[in-house]
């Protein structure tokens, strides 16, 4: 089978050995995946301790595809089922092995390419808002609102009856989320009182959020795109009763939940109902995956980038 492996901090599409599933895993024929910034950062830093095929590291977290071989222990969907899910690595290949509690079945009306955008970005948004105790009437500030996580977070918040405020960096990006946000700010607002702040920039931006969170509010930090440390005045926290700073490392959060696919079925149902929309702005095949990764990191992708591993079926 073909797979995209990492060598010298670059991706190379070569013939690799198909995975051998454990008894609790299914063998999935991958139709589509998506590309996330975290994956690309991992490729560029290339720790080389994540080896999934004979010394090769095959990246890829999100997948949508068809069950080729069901789990030997009887769990999970039957052969031929259409599924979407996540793995820690290995999705950028024509076959993958996935635990049955890391996938859900797809309704007939959803395409593989749409579904493949959901797992990591959608679950990050879903769990971040859950950690902030999302409920109707709350004001939610979403940084990086034009990205994959941000777009999903705005829509999930609105569906719950919250007021969703998106933060973008330019007028052009303002227009890209005009139909999914209740309010839009170009740059951090000068003032405000937000019950939940989803923050992914880190550094000075995270420190500034302490002035914007409401009493009893929560800042959920799920990234550090700036790569900078955060220094803040502890007095700012004491001036806000019961302010909470909550970190979110998605895989750790998924592992500690009763079910590791918690939230994914909800996201699929929302997408099928039209309550949630995905914005696919770039689609490439395996042979062009490196160019797509570069475009994502150069901030030329406002939305989701899809990797069509079987373009005819996606």
From TrEMBL:
Instruction: Supply the source organism's classification.
Output: Bacteria, Pseudomonadati, Pseudomonadota, Alphaproteobacteria, Sphingomonadales
Taxonomically, which superkingdom?
Bacteria
Where's the Enoyl reductase (ER) domain?
Answer: 7-307
Origin organism is Rhizorhabdus wittichii (strain DSM 6014 / CCUG 31198 / JCM 15750 / NBRC 105917 / EY 4224 / RW1) (Sphingomonas wittichii)
The GO molecular function terms of this record are: NADPH binding; oxidoreductase activity, acting on NAD(P)H
Pfam families in UniProt: ADH_N (PF08240), ADH_zinc_N_2 (PF13602)
The record's keywords, sorted A to Z, are:
NADP, Oxidoreductase
Record InterPro entries: ADH-like_N, ER, GroES-like_sf, NAD(P)-bd_dom_sf
Q: What is this protein called?
A: Alcohol dehydrogenase, zinc-binding domain protein
């Amino acid at each position: 089978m073909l797979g995209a492996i990492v060598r010298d901090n670059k991706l190379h599409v070569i013939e690799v050995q198909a995975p051998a599933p454990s008894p609790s895993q299914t063998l999935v024929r991958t139709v589509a995946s998506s590309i996330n910034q975290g994956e690309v950062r991992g490729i560029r830093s290339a720790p080389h301790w994540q080896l999934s095929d004979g010394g090769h590291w095959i990246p890829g977290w999100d997948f949508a595809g068809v069950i080729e071989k069901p789990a030997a222990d009887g769990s999970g969907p039957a052969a031929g089922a259409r599924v979407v899910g996540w793995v820690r690595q290995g999705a950028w290949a024509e076959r993958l092995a996935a635990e049955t509690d890391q996938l859900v079945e797809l309704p007939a009306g959803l395409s593989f390419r749409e579904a493949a955008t959901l797992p990591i970005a959608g679950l990050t948004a879903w769990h971040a808002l859950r950690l902030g105790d999302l409920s109707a009437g709350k004001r939610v500030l979403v940084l990086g609102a034009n990205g994959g996580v941000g777009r999903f977070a705005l829509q999930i918040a609105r569906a719950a009856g919250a007021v969703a405020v998106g933060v973008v960096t330019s007028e052009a990006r303002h227009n890209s989320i005009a139909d999914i946000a209740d309010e839009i700010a170009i740059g951090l607002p000068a003032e405000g009182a937000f019950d939940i702040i989803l923050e992914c920039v880190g550094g000075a931006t995270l420190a500034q959020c302490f002035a914007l969170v409401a009493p009893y509010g929560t800042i959920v930090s799920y990234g550090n795109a700036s790569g900078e440390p955060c220094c803040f005045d502890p007095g700012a926290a004491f001036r806000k009763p019961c302010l909470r700073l909550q970190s979110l490392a998605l895989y750790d959060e998924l592992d500690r939940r009763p079910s590791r696919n918690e939230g994914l079925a909800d996201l699929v149902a929302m997408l099928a109902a039209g309550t949630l929309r995905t914005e696919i702005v770039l689609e490439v095949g395996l042979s062009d995956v490196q160019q797509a990764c570069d475009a994502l990191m150069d901030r030329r992708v406002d939305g989701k980038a899809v990797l069509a591993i079987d373009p005819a079926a996606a």
